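FORM 7B: Structural annotation worksheet

SECTION A. Query
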Amino acid sequence: MSSFKRIRKYLIPTLLIVILAVSILAAYASYSSGNQSKANPNVYVGVAFGGNTTEETKVLIDRVKSYTNLFILDSGRNAISENQTSVEEICDYAVSQGLSVIINLGIRDVLDTNRSWFWQQPLNVTKQLWTERWGSKFLGIYYNDEPGGLQLDGNWSAWFRTYGEEYLQDNSTTSNDLNQIYLKMLAYMDNGTEPQNYNLEAKFFVQDVLKGDEGLDELDAAGITTYTSDYGLYWFDYQGGYNVLFTELGWNCSVAEQIALIKGAARLQNKEWGAIITWSYDSIPYLDSGDQIYNQMLTSYEAGAKYIVVFDYPYVEGNDYGVMRDDQFIALQRFWNDITQQKFADLSVPEAVLVLPQNYGWGMRNPNDTIWGFWPTDDKTQQIAIATSKLLVQYGVSLDIVYDDPAYPISNVGYQHVYYWNSTDI
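SECTION B. Predicted structure
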């Protein structure tokens, strides 16, 4: 077992997400009223199925097919995804009902010999067969989940206590990056030497964690569009190879901040983005009310999301449709009807941008969030938090948040207002 594969196996992410509390509603309402309106039904709207049987998928599809155009088979590696016949039967049905499909078959794990990924079939063959079968309705593959969140919330201290010394003796490229991070951490603990920059941490995440992922690499080589959801480090997820990211809206997070982060990353790196409405509670009812979900979907739409999805997991006793209730289905139908029949504010234009320090992988969910999962807050954190809060109040979802990176110059985008994290005019 290689050292890096141990990381993938033993890192334990946490799912308790808290964020900076920013009040933007009044500013957003007043600001949006002055922007041009748009009617753009050219957006994918749907549900992400998290059940276990083909029968459940068909019941859900029948419920939503008249007011959605996307179905994500988000079952991961369970009884459905292990069965090629089931996957194709489900997608056949979804496509026959007019829906496009994205498929999640779990991750490529060479250590797990009890399962096969894509049934040991070459991905270029799979792509050809599914494109012939479903045409343009086959959008791509949902691969892995929350890679940035895993990086931010992984128990790195415990991992280094277990494997750190072993890494000092390992000369492979992957372990060398993590080795150097470990040495930086030892220096910090020994004499308080703080990092001068976070270039090494960014390199480790982008090159070793993402580009070093065999499954993501195989999907890219086969020319298959890759999707995943996350709640942090979107900029670096895109750099690592993902084509489309969904920002997770839930857990009482700041919708405006999450959208600003993913929208800015997608704009500068010429990628697509979407929003997935996920849990706000860790037990029943899990999801927000229908009215709250409608507002989150509409905000995402006005901000320019290409994909807007409700995460329908888990399946609860007494509900044939998973976790979604009548009020949430009504909200989804209302949203679909509204965006196909009405015009709304267009907040997707490049209005304002906040530029963060290069490779500054701070989670930004609360004032004490980690930097790259390795480090506590530093002397830049408070100033960035204050700048972010002020600009979100002023611009709402018309704000982009990006990183200072010569590979993606902000001069390529016609922002009307540019603010750097340490600007004195914020």
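SECTION C. Observations
The first strand starts at residue 37 and ends at 38. Confidence is low (pLDDT under 50) at residues 1-34.

SECTION D. Sign-off
Analyst initials: ____
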